[in-house]
DNA sequence: TTTTATCCTATTTATTTAATAGGATTTAAC
DNA sequence: GTTAAATCCTATTAAATAAATAGGATAAAA
């Protein structure tokens, strides 16, 4: 249901969430850790930066960091940035039934948007912490 | 955000919703009214029938009708039938962050599923009625 | 038995998503 | 300043999915 860009983008952000205040991490390093294509992840990073979700320091020694606290970054912003179909216009013109269907689907999309706005990266971080506890348990 | 199959499928169902009890309407007729590709709509109709959303009478004089009252047909059933990506498996295996992201996205998809289950065709019909009133107003 | 409609399978075309490639730009470090 | 390390930009290719088309098999009413 979610394109790979969203999956990878979330892994990228989750990795950044482990960074100490004021530090940065490069795409090459993250791609290596996460076993993802450097170039593909690079494009994702640029998109997230343009959306104001991450901050960047260009040049040597640079890299990315989260622009805001986890609970202030919503899944809506991320999906909107990385999944073009969320945006794609729904026609509310034309034939009679077409208008009705268009308005109906717009209202559903709005509800979906509200849902996504209520979910923040904090929740993702919790899933991640849970996962690590599970591993700790076996050691 | 929704594939054309869903748009067309809803227009198809909305058209059927105007039918008198016990009557049927053929795909060719509906495609003509709605200005849609007959063959494409045909495939959509078959899918909706397999999902139990519409009933069919084969042979001459046959056609489709709604299988249940409007308020008992949810958008979830329709989208599940016509949009394959809703189903597509989300990997909750592999790398650490991959698991966390997988479980996180599964939970979001579940919330979305609940949202879609709360929306029925009755609501679509209301949008349609509204639309017609708007037109009546100008006459 | 003919006609009308659904149903099935396959193919083609268009669009979108994913991935790759090469180099331009920026800036810290030396 | 020069170099090295990183982001950024543009273009292209490859793969996957969605949309549309085509032809005929099957079913059943007329």
UniProtKB/TrEMBL annotation, chains A, B:
The keyword DNA-binding applies. SUPFAM superfamilies: Winged helix' DNA-binding domain. Keywords: DNA-binding. One of its GO terms (molecular function) is DNA-binding transcription factor activity. GO terms for cellular component: cytosol. It comes from the Bacteria. PROSITE patterns: HTH_RRF2_2 (PS51197). Pfam families: Rrf2 (PF02082). NCBIfam families: rrf2_super. This is Rrf2 family transcriptional regulator.
